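INFO batch 0412 | record 1 of 1 | parsing
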Amino acid sequence: MDMTTHTLITIAWELHEQGLPKTHIAQRLGKHRETIILWIQGIEHYGLLGFLERYDHAKKVPRVHRQVDPILKRWIWEIREREYDCCGQKIAYFLEEEHRVSLSVPKIYEILKEKLIIKNRWNKNVVRGPVPTASHPQEVIQMDPIDFGDLFAFTAVEISSKEADILITPALTGSFEYQFLKQCMERRLHTHVSLIQTDGGPEFKEEFQDHVRDYCDLHRISRPYRKNEQSYIESFNRTVRKECLGWIKYHHDQLPICTTMVESFLDRYHYHRPHMGNNMQPPLSRKETDCRISTEN
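INFO prediction complete | emitting tokens
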């Protein structure tokens, strides 16, 4: 071991004996405060010379790297592929649910990096602006369409419970959007909500404008070029593309197939797929849905 670290440990102990706070010692020596605390605690227990000897010995002993069970690695890779390249938090959820294995998210990403290229898309310094908020479920809904060539998907998500709905249509018009509005509110939410938010697209005019207030107290149009105001529905639409319909273009004659795919996806989304915004729980459980429907009937 070089003399530089020996000197730093000795200086740290001398400054501590002089009554200098550990934070100031760390700043002066360019070390982390926790490192200074460990040094001082070790010296108090073993004495300065004894601690330096133990420190030398610990540095000379090669560290044994922990080996991860190959079966556990295979489970993680299989879940990642099966659940449409899901994030580490969801992999941890499924490991616990299916195999009763608890593993930290950083460790999961470490294992994924052995086989995959993992990109971090999160940038905490981006200014995201205001977004609609809900104090309780069934209060705020965001809506938006997705273009699939000759077909379109009208989508909606309730931003608190994350309950969602989709309708595949052959055109992007206000009449189809009204059809979707009626389907969404009567099939999924069964209630009158406080706010429905859309963008300013032409599909949210005509019949939609005539009837939207039948289902909400206020219809808000998000500001143009401010996708953060539609963040919940934008996130859901990305999930629809990633886990259901993809990024390809569909033809009119594929409408029945797409509708079947969407209904299967919605069933999986609501009852199987954990959601990070719901404490890693699916938006719905079959028992809760059956109880709600029986109560309303």
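INFO post-check: The chain is about 50% helix and 10% strand.
INFO record closed
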